[in-house]
Backbone:
């Protein structure tokens, strides 16, 4: 009840905000940015502050990468400083030893960082859970010692005499000029990151942290997406390294060690991991604090100490204890929802491609899905034990059984989230038992989850659009350059149509995390429809719905079937199942105990026993 | 470079001694992780502080550790008062005051009184351990208790925060100079071409003894079994009446004790600076990780292997020894990861 009230309130606010956002979104930030870039030349800003802002800008680049990697993608890295070192050392060596122009060494530095990121990332992103940050820790330290011990990198003393950036004959040694370079880079990086996160790949990245299961089931290649984020954040760090090297004009190992790596992480956490502008806030907070502490503390505490680390450590712990989401959300409130796409008439109404293909083939008699002798064992427990059933195109089949009967495990086997211990699964005549979830999704099989898998801080519309992942093609580069706008409009339109079909249009722009349980189920159904499935697997779709909503759902499912999509559904609400389905398959303790038309199964003694216990 | 038998034996001996110290650290890491899910990064500080405490006592000075303990005690008491302000009972006040204020004050007075007497290692070592051990539970109270429900990752980041703070304090209290303590056992003897020092035997003996005590404690005492219960299922342990917060504090105390012993053993072998412990702790950590952060025997074996590998790396490529030791971790992390299904989400 209270959830519903909370859910309905923000709607009015959203549309109001939207109207304002569209203009403010482009003009105001641009004006602020211009004023900011001009500020050092007004003479109002002391040179000391300009230099500090240069360092803040450079650190912000690294923190921005970490926000994407850690806050959005869920991969914590303690080793980001090593990539800054990659960029800095590459450019230092190229400009000092080979006399190359810094502008030429920029692409080469970025290339070296990307190559390093790709190699290290290929190993690292495969690490699971907390092994991943520990892996970054290991190679962060390893590279620090490598930097300090390679003779060609100058050992512990490092390299000095790095040439400054030049425009024509003018060296950019003045911090005010460098300020423009640094902050232009940062603005570009922010625009690129926002573009990346907004689009199709961005939704996949944002799903990584919360629900890799759902991401995979809608065609996201999880390891590849993780690697993409890893390399992207390494590139931002490499760019920061290049800027640092030509500003500082010398490099040594210590700014690229573990302490520095943790300081960058501190920036991301303090600012608010997961929020783009939090990176700048965090970088500014940490850089300014360090500077102040280095000035003040020796006065207070004597010179024999390293008090900024004491304070940083304490602040980090305090932030984690009191504001685990960082400072930016406290200042700026919850993330903004994206604009609603303009309607593209004609697109939304068109039947999804996969579904139309299945109606065209019109093979009503052959089995669309054919599971033979499926087994799944967890240690000694046989969760699914020799289950066989099939489903013909255009059918709605119910998979029922008491709790623990193996229904959800069967779904996981069919969609590739778990590999069967034995048995065959054929879909449209093709064996899919050994395929990965994205490959199965590509063949037109989509699903919902019993325990909902959504990204809570993404809007309902964007969550649903994740289901249309396979219907777009735009990759990261197209997204970064903003060349995916048309395709995005189409995908969001598909999503909007699906949202409307399940009756969530009023909530479309709300963060999914604010929805009550029943509506989250509807969201999952909308997302599954976006794939354009030939077969839809629904895991307890009616749970948490009220009577009216259940009826609407049943109507929707009949309509979906009429459009050529077959449905396999797990459900406990017997009246809902029996009225909807053509056939029922009954599982109990992993074994199929009955199969047939609803009326027949209802009278089956075994089924009655399974549900009600032994008949006395 | 060719390795003859003498060099080989020397390297192995060197590696085993360092490995024994890493083993103590690795055990402490596994223990703390199992009971609290915290990766005990600040262990390095305990290692360094205990060695430096022994050094101060050897020279007849009152160790700065006593002051640091007072500081941490006040912070821990303040944290308790702030967090428990709504339900402060006389008992909570009493326990807090006794443990966080009176105990450090008493220890402070004790070392001031005893330090000038130069009582020798049999008094200095227990004093050093007594000064370091209470820091464990205090730090748990200050930093980790409010995060008990947080993810492993948040705890890991917090652990680094704690590490930085204490390391910075270490520089203030102990200064930047390195120290070396007197050997616990003098003398040496020849075993074929190998020279074995009394100190190395002392290290091995002490480490082995501690590991055996540790094993007996966990297998045969109620407290040890309670900690094991917390390790395997925190919620379940809580439901059957094992106080999980207390379990966390005990785990931290035990780990601090292990680290203190490791520091005392390493003091005579290498020059110890205020920040030396971090690198020792990290190598212990490499060993603990190779054991998957769950297996005590594996951690000990891995610690010896890390020590020996390090000895050989420093012989062949001394410049890159640290880089190589840490790179060693990556393949083991990969193997560990393969056992986990790729789509499992880290619970947040």
Residues:
């Amino acid at each position: 009840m209270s959830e519903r009230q909370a859910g309905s309130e923000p709607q009015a606010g959203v549309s109001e905000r939207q109207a304002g956002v569209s203009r403010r979104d482009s003009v105001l930030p641009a004006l602020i940015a211009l004023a900011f870039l001009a500020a050092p030349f007004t003479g109002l800003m002391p040179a000391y502050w300009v230099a500090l802002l240069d360092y803040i800008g450079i650190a912000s680049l690294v923190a921005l990468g970490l926000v994407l990697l850690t806050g959005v993608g869920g991969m914590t890295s303690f080793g980001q400083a090593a990539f800054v070192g990659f960029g800095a050392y590459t450019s230092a060596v190229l400009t000092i030893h080979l006399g190359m122009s810094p502008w030429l060494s920029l692409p080469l530095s970025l290339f070296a960082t990307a190559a390093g990121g790709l190699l290290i990332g290929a190993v690292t992103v495969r690490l699971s859970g907390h092994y991943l940050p520990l892996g970054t820790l290991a190679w962060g330290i390893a590279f620090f010692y490598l930097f300090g011990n390679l003779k060609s990198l100058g050992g512990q003393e490092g390299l000095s005499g790095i040439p400054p950036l030049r425009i024509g004959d003018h060296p950019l040694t003045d911090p005010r000029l460098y300020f423009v370079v640094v902050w232009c880079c940062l603005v570009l990086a922010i625009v690129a990151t926002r573009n990346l996160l907004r689009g199709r790949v961005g939704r996949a990245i944002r799903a990584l942290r919360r629900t890799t299961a759902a991401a995979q089931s809608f065609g996201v290649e999880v390891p590849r997406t993780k690697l993409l984020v890893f390399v992207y954040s390494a590139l931002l760090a490499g760019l920061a390294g290049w800027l640092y090297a030509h500003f500082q004009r010398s490099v040594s190992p210590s700014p690229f060690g573990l302490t520095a790596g943790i300081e960058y992480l501190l920036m991301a956490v303090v600012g608010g991991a997961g929020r783009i502008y939090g990176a700048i806030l965090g970088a500014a907070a940490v850089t300014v604090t360090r500077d102040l502490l280095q000035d003040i503390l020796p006065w207070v505490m004597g010179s024999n100490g390293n008090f900024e680390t004491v304070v940083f450590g304490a602040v980090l712990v305090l932030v984690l204890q009191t504001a685990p989401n960082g400072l930016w959300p406290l200042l700026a409130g919850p993330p903004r929802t994206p604009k609603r796409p303009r309607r593209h008439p004609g697109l939304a109404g068109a039947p999804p491609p996969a579904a139309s293909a299945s109606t065209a083939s019109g093979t009503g008699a052959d089995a669309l899905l054919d599971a033979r002798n499926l087994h799944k064992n967890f240690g000694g427990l046989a969760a699914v034990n020799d289950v066989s059933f099939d489903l013909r195109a255009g059918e709605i089949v119910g998979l029922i059984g008491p709790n623990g009967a193996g229904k959800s495990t069967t779904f996981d086997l069919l969609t590739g989230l778990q590999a069967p211990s034995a048995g065959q699964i054929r879909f449209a005549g093709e064996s899919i038992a050994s395929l990965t979830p994205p490959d199965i999704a590509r063949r037109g099989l989509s699903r919902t989850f019993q325990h909902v898998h959504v990204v809570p801080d993404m809007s309902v519309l964007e969550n649903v659009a994740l289901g249309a992942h396979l219907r777009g093609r735009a990759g990261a580069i197209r997204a970064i350059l903003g060349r995916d706008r048309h395709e995005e409009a189409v995908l969001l339109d598909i999503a909007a149509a699906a949202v409307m079909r399940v009756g969530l249009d009023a909530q479309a722009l709300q963060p999914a995390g604010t929805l009550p349980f029943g509506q989250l189920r509807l969201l999952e159904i909308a997302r599954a429809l976006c794939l354009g499935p030939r077969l839809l697997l629904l895991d307890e779709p009616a749970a948490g719905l009220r009577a009216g909503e259940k009826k609407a759902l049943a109507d929707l499912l009949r309509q979906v079937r009429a459009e050529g999509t077959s449905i396999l559904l797990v459900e406990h609400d017997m009246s809902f199942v029996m009225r909807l389905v053509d056939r029922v398959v009954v599982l109990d303790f992993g074994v199929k105990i009955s199969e047939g038309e609803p009326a027949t199964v209802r009278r089956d003694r075994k089924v009655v026993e399974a549900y009600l216990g032994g008949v006395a | 470079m060719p390795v003859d038998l003498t060099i080989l034996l020397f390297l192995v001996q060197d590696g085993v001694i360092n490995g024994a110290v890493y083993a103590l650290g690795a055990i402490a890491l596994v223990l703390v992780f199992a009971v609290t899910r915290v990766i005990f990064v600040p262990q390095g500080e305990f290692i360094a502080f205990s060695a430096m405490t022994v050094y101060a006592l050897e020279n007849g000075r009152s160790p700065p550790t006593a002051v640091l303990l007072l500081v941490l005690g006040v912070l821990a008491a303040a944290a308790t008062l702030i967090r428990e302000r709504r339900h402060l009972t006389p008992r909570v006040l009493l326990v807090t005051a006794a443990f966080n204020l009176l105990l450090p004050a008493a220890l402070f007075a004790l070392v001031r009184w005893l330090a000038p007497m130069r009582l020798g290692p049999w008094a200095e070592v227990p004093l050093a351990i007594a000064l370091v051990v209470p820091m464990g539970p205090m730090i748990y109270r200050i930093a980790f208790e409010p995060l008990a429900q947080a993810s492993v990752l948040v705890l890991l980041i917090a652990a680094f925060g704690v590490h930085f703070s204490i390391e910075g304090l270490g520089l203030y209290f102990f200064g930047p100079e390195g120290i070396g303590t007197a050997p616990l056992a003098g003398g040496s003897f020849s075993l074929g071409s190998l020279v074995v020092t009394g100190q190395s035997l002392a290290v091995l003996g002490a480490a082995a003894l501690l590991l055996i005590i540790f094993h007996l404690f966990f297998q045969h005492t109620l407290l040890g079994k309670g900690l094991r219960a917390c390790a395997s299922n925190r919620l379940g342990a809580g439901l059957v009446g094992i106080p999980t917060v207390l379990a966390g504090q005990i785990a931290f105390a035990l780990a601090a004790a292990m680290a203190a012993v490791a520091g005392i053993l390493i003091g005579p072998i290498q020059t110890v600076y205020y920040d030396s412990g971090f690198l020792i702790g990290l190598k212990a950590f490499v060993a603990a990780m190779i054991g998957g952060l769950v297996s005590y025997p594996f951690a000990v074996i891995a610690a010896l292997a890390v020590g020996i590998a390090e000895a050989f790396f420093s012989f062949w490529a001394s410049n890159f020894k640290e880089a190589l030791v840490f790179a060693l971790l990556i393949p083991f992390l990969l193997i560990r990861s393969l056992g986990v299904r790729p789509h499992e989400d880290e619970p947040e």
